[in-house]
Automatic annotation (TrEMBL):
<dbReference type="InterPro" id="IPR000914">
    <property type="entry name" value="SBP_5_dom"/>
</dbReference>
<feature type="domain" description="Solute-binding protein family 5">
    <location>
        <begin position="105"/>
        <end position="454"/>
    </location>
</feature>
<protein>
    <submittedName>
        <fullName>ABC transporter substrate-binding protein</fullName>
    </submittedName>
</protein>
<dbReference type="InterPro" id="IPR030678">
    <property type="entry name" value="Peptide/Ni-bd"/>
</dbReference>
<dbReference type="Pfam" id="PF00496">
    <property type="entry name" value="SBP_bac_5"/>
</dbReference>
<feature type="signal peptide">
    <location>
        <begin position="1"/>
        <end position="19"/>
    </location>
</feature>
<dbReference type="InterPro" id="IPR039424">
    <property type="entry name" value="SBP_5"/>
</dbReference>
<keyword id="KW-0732">Signal</keyword>
Length: 545
């Protein structure tokens, strides 16, 4: 039972992919021939090898405004999927697969691939002609080295890649993954940082510490300067495998103040802003800017409780307290105030409609019910608790609003706004009280939930020291990533969300939100804000000015 998936049929077979090999039988010779022919055309597009438009101009520096430094170093094995790390990775890294506008993935550094759930194998056919910025060829040995190294030290191994038993080189450009259990999410995992390729020769020559600040990927640019908390400059590769790079360079400039970055965009000091807040987006929209929101929404915002309560004295260790807090918050008003037209209220984890379950009830705004539950839990006069979150305008605004709502039912909230390493540490273990979290949702909801809410996760995981991880949640999520068909995947994700929300109130989902981008109209073909927040097309970008 073996299927070959090419670029042209990846979206059409999304359901079969998530289901492993469910649905129709193997394709006929005629179908395979058509797929191969169109795959060649798609490969040219993916590689940036299509003939450039006659009016495209060469030269210049694309200047991009961003609001923070990297969360992690730029070594691909250290990355954990933080949104800003993806932005900085655009010029230098490419992955084995790439998200598309349909919410599935296509091969990128692969020509195509096949999979066999009965034999527990994936077979990857590596794209020929790809080189790293140091000249090293991307072949099967290089892919195996990257995957083996990631399986040894990568941040998301347990969450996303634990099904991989071994990686085997079949021939010069063919790699086989041997699994210990079936996983339908591997192509999705390899469309994110898990699938970034780093030059093995460069790593072996220079060592890990050097590589943390000197990425060597297959992308169209090389990192040439890094001024911490100020800027990064990436210079074009003359030998980029995907064709001529039109820009001379790309510069990322950090603006801590959203008003300053907006003014810089309007003056032409910068050409684009990444991850705008809603207020800045509305202001720029009023000036005529087209605010880009991507084809696929990207973030879920949720309030997380110390439900594990290791010390035994945290009020949020009590289910009734957690439910009371949820009833005390007017989510409709909060989402409108913080995200406006760019966010939607959502009572369960995820984005979009595909995995949405009507079985999840959630919590209506009912302050009186909140007070009743607090009294039943032994807190008729309320209590004092901490709420921590990351230093972004959206999270700070949302936390302040939550603080106000909880005060109305007798809960005094002490806010802690954290940045950088402190925020990163708190995300995994914030101590007592609550953590307000903005989570990227990386295309596949089963993959994302499996990386956050399953048992026995290691590494940097949301609330690894704070969140309950019940057996029935584990069972539902385990089934979702090994589903026999797409209906089963949807059903089990819905059940996991019902348990997380209604049964245990481990997290309280507030909103699904688009990542917002503003790009000056003279920036052409950059791909910024078009498909998904984690990818752009800077190799084909040019400036019409």
């Amino acid at each position: 039972m073996r299927k070959c998936i090419s670029l042209v049929v990846a979206a059409a077979l999304a359901a079969g992919l998530l289901a492993g090999c469910g649905g129709s039988g193997s394709g006929s010779k005629g179908q395979e021939g058509t797929a191969a022919a169109v795959s060649g055309e798609s490969a040219e597009s993916a590689a940036g090898q299509m003939e450039a438009a006659s009016d495209a101009k060469a030269g210049g520096t694309l200047k991009i405004g961003v609001n923070t430094e990297c969360v992690h170093t730029m070594l691909s094995f250290d990355l954990t999927g933080a949104g800003v790390d993806y932005y900085y990775s655009w010029p230098v890294y490419e992955s084995l697969f790439k998200p598309n506008a349909e919410g599935t993935v296509d091969p990128w550094l692969l020509e195509d691939y096949s999979y066999d759930p009965e034999a527990l194998t994936y077979t990857f056919h590596v794209r020929k002609g790809v080189t790293f910025s140091d000249g090293t060829v991307l072949d099967a040995e290089a892919v195996k080295w990257n995957l083996d190294h990631y399986l040894e030290v990568g941040a998301k191994v347990e969450a996303l890649l634990s099904s991989i038993e071994s990686v085997e080189v079949v021939d010069e450009y063919t790699v086989q993954l041997n699994l210990n259990k079936w996983s339908s999410i591997l192509p999705y995992a390899f469309s994110r940082e898990c699938g970034y390729m780093f030059s093995p020769d460069f790593f072996e020559k220079n060592g890990e510490e050097y590589c943390k600040e000197h990425p060597c990927g297959t992308g169209p640019f090389e990192l040439t300067s890094w001024d911490y908390d100020v800027s990064k400059t990436f210079t074009k590769r003359d030998d980029y495998w995907g064709g001529d790079v039109k820009l001379d360079s790309v510069e990322y400039i950090i603006y801590k103040d959203a008003l300053v970055s907006s003014a810089a965009l309007q003056s032409g000091e910068i050409d684009a802003i990444l991850a705008l807040n809603a207020e800045s987006a509305d202001a720029l929209k009023a000036y005529g800017y087209d605010i880009k929101t991507c084809s696929v929404k990207s973030h879920s915002y949720l309030l997380c409780f110390n439900s594990l309560n290791k010390t035994g004295d945290d009020p949020t260790g009590d289910l009734k307290v957690r439910q009371a807090i949820c009833h005390a918050i007017d989510t409709d008003a909060l989402v409108q105030a913080v995200w406006g037209d760019y966010g939607d209220v959502r009572n369960q984890f995820g984005v979009g409609t595909h995995y949405y379950s009507e079985d999840v009830k959630g919590y209506d705004y009912d302050p009186e019910k909140a007070k009743e539950l607090l009294a039943e839990a032994g807190y008729p006069d309320g209590f004092e608790i901490s709420l921590k979150t990351e230093e972004t305008s959206a999270l700070k605004n949302a936390a302040t609003i939550i603080q106000s709502y909880l005060a109305e039912v007798g809960i005094k909230v002490n806010l802690s706004i954290l940045s950088g390493a402190d925020a990163n540490t708190a995300e995994a273990g914030w101590g007592e009280g609550m953590w307000l979290h903005g989570s990227s949702v990386y295309v596949s909801v089963p993959m994302q939930m499996a990386s956050m809410f399953r048992q026995n996760l290691t590494g940097h995981v949301l609330g690894i020291n704070n969140l309950l991880r019940p057996d029935d949640v584990e069972a539902a999520l385990a089934t979702s990533v090994m589903a026999a068909d797409e209906d089963e995947a949807v059903k089990t994700v819905g059940e996991a969300n019902r348990l997380l929300t209604d049964e245990y109130c481990i997290v309280y989902n507030l909103a699904e939100v688009a990542t917002l981008f503003a790009v000056n109209d003279y920036v052409k073909d950059s791909g910024i804000g078009e498909v998904f927040y984690s990818v752009a097309d800077l190799g084909n970008a040019w400036l019409d000015k």
